[in-house]
């Protein structure tokens, strides 16, 4: 078992390998993380881990609020994640490599990172200025018939794109330049589909590429059928959580 300890950045979203993640870093705990990452030489990867939040707040409360208007908000690296941060996060995340970390005049940071490797969350340490985690790297196994499944997913994804573009009255890419590597296809489609965090998390932690593609094929066919009969799509994420500032 290969393990690694990395800074931990919890978000209300799921990061997939190969996908780009832009971040607006303004909380002090994550600014401290970026200052530390900047100490890494530019020719070496500046890595941190992204996990989706299961139960907690992406941005820690900064003022008294409900249900007690006099209660002071928690402070520190685990603020907003309860007494046991490990329970607040989904168990599988993704390592991110920060290609760009740019400090603004006000001390906040503009970060552009890319997902690289899936990891399993083993433990969380809140003793420092930001969260760190012990992580187990997860290999990406192809599974049975991944190639054939990827072809089917791409066909269904193109139909899904067309239906989605029609429902939203805007254009999407034709998908002609989509990749043909099964694992890349599985992650790209998982990130591109309009689904909630639990569904995307399920796709991220699929046991192998073929299993992820089979799940995506079912989701795409079901969603395409639903979109075909709907005049518009619900903005489901607006009802689930506050707008993310990251």
Automatic annotation (TrEMBL):
Q: Could you confirm whether the keyword Zinc appears in this record?
A: no
Q: Which GO terms describe its biological process?
A: proteolysis
Region annotated Disordered, chain positions = 60-82
Q: Which domain of life is it from?
A: Bacteria
Specify the Lon N-terminal domain's residue ranges: 6-224
Annotated GO MF terms: peptidase activity
Q: Which UniProt keywords apply?
A: Hydrolase, Protease
Q: Does the keyword Protease apply?
A: yes
Task: Name the coiled-coil region(s).
Answer: none
Name-wise, this protein is ATP-dependent protease
In its UniProt entry, the species of origin is given as Streptomyces incarnatus
Q: What is the lineage of its organism?
A: Bacteria, Bacillati, Actinomycetota, Actinomycetes, Kitasatosporales
